Amino acid sequence: MSKGNNLKLTLKDDQHRHFRDDDFWRIIPAWKDVTREEFSDHMWQMKHSIKKVEQVKTVLAELCKDQFYQDMLEGQKITPMNIRITPYIFALMDWNDPVNCPMRKQFLPIGSQFLPDHPYYEADSLHEDVDSPVPTITHRYHDKVLFLPTTICPVYCSYCTRSRLIGGSTETVEKETYGVNQARMDVAFDYIRAHPAIEDVVISGGDAFMMTAKQITFIGENLLNIPHIRRLRFATKGIAIYPQKILSDHEWFNALNGVHKKAREMGKSVVIHTHFSSPKEITIFSKLAMDRLFAEGIIVRNQAVLQEGVNDNINDMVLLIKQISYMNIQPYYVYMHDMVPGCEHFRTTIAEGEALEKAVRGTTAGFNTPTFVCDAPGGGGKRHVASYEYYDRENGISVWTAPNVKPGEVFFYFDPIRKLSAEAQARWSVKETREAMIAEAKKKAGF
Ligand code: SF4
Q1: Stated pTM of the model
Q2: pLDDT value at residue 4
Q3: What pLDDT, in 10s, does the model give residues 118-136?
Q4: Which atom of ligand 1 is least distant from the CA of 236?
Q5: Where in the chain are the domains?
Q6: Which CATH number is 1-21+101-385's, of 3.20.110.10, 3.30.450.30, 3.30.450.20, 3.20.20.70?
Q7: Mean model confidence pLDDT for the chain
Q8: Confidence tier at 176 by pLDDT (50, 70, 90)
Q9: Does ligand 1 come within 6 angstroms of the Cβ of 211?
Q10: Mean pLDDT of 182-207
Q11: Is the pLDDT of residue 218 over 50?
Q12: CA-closest residue to ligand 1 atom 6
């Protein structure tokens, strides 16, 4: 992100109050006769989800140029994520310019986008597996656990931080795919019961939208019945990419709402953490889904990922923040992109994250202003983007600590090498030189 144009706010005051409400899916040749009623049905969305490159070609017909098709095939040889895209999201992609479309970038990998991984990338960059005492549980923060009961999502994001686990094996990564499973859940519940310090459970994966109504109720009630558990968060990208589930799967919605109501009776909370990253993901379907959740008093917070070419400019970021706020979603976090495989083209520098947060601050109320964070590689947890101990901007090395999470440890985040000066890039190309630069940064940070 260059300073200047990307930080110049030119949004109209009321732009965020307008929700796309046309039959946008009819632009796709295969869906030109699909009615609004059909498109609004969650079953129709699942049945027509795109899972193969060949399917992209079939539904797009003449809109799929041969060069783009070849590019998708090349992408399949590199990407760690399988394709799974709801028609809702697929139809929101710009098929006149798919290569540059922020929606396409997030969900449909192409070979020409990929860059070599950073020398210090890791498949499990956040060390969730390292901090996992039993399968499906990551216990890093004293009073909170991450619980991953499934590895399945309604849409697979190209930038997924859990690409090592989610969405099944690809040409480059072997994965163990699992759905909700009683034996695994029993182990997870036993662990949580045995650790009274835990008050907070994030139920993620994978995606809660892929659990059945019975599973939502079972997981929710079992966790709420543990006396020391106070807060549950169902993590789902669903509202952003599959709002039809909220609007038409009444059994599922009632199960979620039932757990929410039970929690309130017990003086506890059940909320949703969702994941809009681009204002282009928002339509009238999102607004209607949120209206339904809000009417029941279900709190929804948003966690976005900062991605180059998707939301790394002030207009898209502020529009995203204001539009989700307008729908009663609280903008909670904007993450620096994790240092995971196949994602170098998405990553931005810490300096860019800081500059964007500075530019965003003051555009709306403080409680609707997200905190920009870096999830410190190696399991330091989320740190405010400007709270590094030291930052060597020239060489793109930031040094972090996490005294309440991993006292005494030092963590590093590295800016994408392509964004550094030619001289710094040359220094990074030599192993001994880069190790010396990292040691120097650590020393300057006081360690
Ligand atoms: S919804 Fe979340 S877990 Fe699923 S693929 Fe996207 S980022 Fe990964």
Answers
A1: 0.96
A2: 58
A3: 999 999 999 999 999 999 9
A4: 1
A5: 1-21+101-385, 22-100, 388-447
A6: 3.20.20.70
A7: 97
A8: confident
A9: no
A10: 96
A11: yes
A12: 157
- In angstroms, how far is CA 30 from the centroid of its own chain? 29
Ligand 1 binding pocket includes 107 (Cβ within 6 Å): no
Quick one: average pLDDT of 213-222? 97
pLDDT tens per residue, range 90-99: 999 999 999 9
CB neighbourhood size of 407 (10 A): 8
| CA–centroid distance, residue 420 to ligand 1 (Å) | 29
For ligand 1, the distance from its centroid to the CA atom of residue 158, given in whole angstroms, is 9
Task: Give the residue, out of 85, 86, 153, 346, with the most ligand 1 atoms within 8 A of its beta carbon, to mutate for a pocket test.
Answer: 153
**Which regions of 74-154 does DSSP assign to beta strands (E)?**
137-139, 144-147
Q: Read off φ and ψ for residue 248, nearest 5 degrees.
A: -130, -10
Please tell me the distance between residue 237's alpha carbon and the centre of ligand 1 in angstroms: 7
Which of 85, 160, 161, 211 should be mutated for ligand 1, with most atoms under 8 A from CB?
160
Burial of 5 (0-12, 13-18, 19+ CB in 10 A): exposed
Predicted local distance difference test score (pLDDT) of residue 2: 47
Q: Is the CB of 273 under 6 A from ligand 1?
A: no
Beta carbons within 8 Å of 87's beta carbon, 6+ residues apart: 25, 28, 31, 39, 44, 45, 48, 49, 50
C-beta 156 within 6 A of ligand 1: yes
Q: Which atom of ligand 1 is nearest to the CA of 237?
A: 1
> Listing from the earlier edge strand, what are the strands of the sheet with 397-401?
390-392, 397-401, 410-414
160 lines ligand 1 (CB under 6 A): yes
Protein residue whose Cα sits closest to atom 7 of ligand 1: 160
What does the DSSP 8-state code read for residue 93?
S
Bridge partners of 375?
A: 382
d(CA 364, CA 325): 9
pLDDT tens by residue, 255-267:
999 999 999 999 9
291 CB contacts (<8 Å, ≥6 apart)? 327
